[in-house]
Write a structure and sequence with these properties.
globular
């Protein structure tokens, strides 16, 4: 897992925000294209809140077409890339 800049993600009142400049290249997009595709519903995201041993951690998963990128927000705010298992990233939707 790769540690990332903690300035890329912020949590305010339970809302998780990620910097478009940090996310876009992970999905093969420019920041403007990311925003446009998000508005069209083509970029999706899921936030999973950890339980038990993972309490306080949140895993964020972003998808755009065949691209998938995951990052874990640790309890101290550290961001760690979480590689997508090969079977999940190569599986066709549907």
């Amino acid at each position: 897992m790769t540690q990332l800049s903690t300035t890329s993600v912020s949590v305010v009142d339970g809302e998780i925000m990620i910097d478009a400049e940090a996310l876009a290249p992970k999905l093969g997009l420019s920041a403007d294209a990311l925003k446009d595709n998000m508005a069209k519903g083509l970029v999706t995201s899921v936030a999973e809140t950890g339980a038990d041993a993972d309490a306080g951690r949140t895993r964020l998963t972003f998808r755009y077409r065949a691209q998938v990128w995951r990052v874990v927000v640790e309890t101290d705010g550290t961001l760690v890339e979480d590689p997508v298992p090969t079977s999940a990233s190569s599986r066709a939707p549907g």
